[in-house]
Write a structure and sequence with these properties.
By secondary structure, the protein is mainly alpha-helical. It has helices at residues 2-10, 14-27, 31-56, 72-83, 85-88, 106-119, and strands spanning 66-67, 91-94, 97-100. The chain has one domain. The model is unreliable at 11-15 (pLDDT under 50).
Length: 126
């Protein structure tokens, strides 16, 4: 869990780009597609945390899986969730969607979403 959040928080630094670049070269991933995949996946996790809060507040909301489209970065996302232990511990593929792994308890899912929402840093280039 911490590995994924750190990857998200540091993906723009030179050091982490070098680490991600080396990881991508070793695993035959496109760097841009890999970074886009990690960011999208963890943004979805953050949204699930918000959905929990909305549901608890009585607002009309429900949890949703992350839909995988037919873009290059989506295929990379599918591959890393299927093949990489860092990701497959937490997520699984279900048809054209990604969802939390069945091996995670509900408490672990909630804790993961909370950590992602509270510890991930959003960098905007406006």
């Amino acid at each position: 869990m911490k590995d994924l959040i750190e990857m998200y928080n540091n993906y723009r630094t030179i050091e982490s780009l070098s680490i991600n670049e080396a990881y991508c070269l070793m695993n035959n991933y496109d760097l841009v597609a890999f970074n886009t995949s990690v960011i999208t996946l963890l943004d979805w996790v953050r949204l699930e945390y918000k959905r929990d809060a909305w549901i608890a507040a009585g607002k009309p909301a429900k949890h949703k899986n992350l839909r995988i489209e037919k873009y290059n970065w989506c295929e990379t996302l599918r591959k890393i969730v299927s093949e990489e232990p860092t990701f497959s511990r937490f997520f699984m593929i279900d048809g054209d969607e990604i969802k939390f792994s069945n091996t995670l308890s509900e408490a672990d899912k909630k804790e993961f979403c909370r950590k992602a929402a509270e510890e991930m840093v959003i960098v905007r280039n406006d």
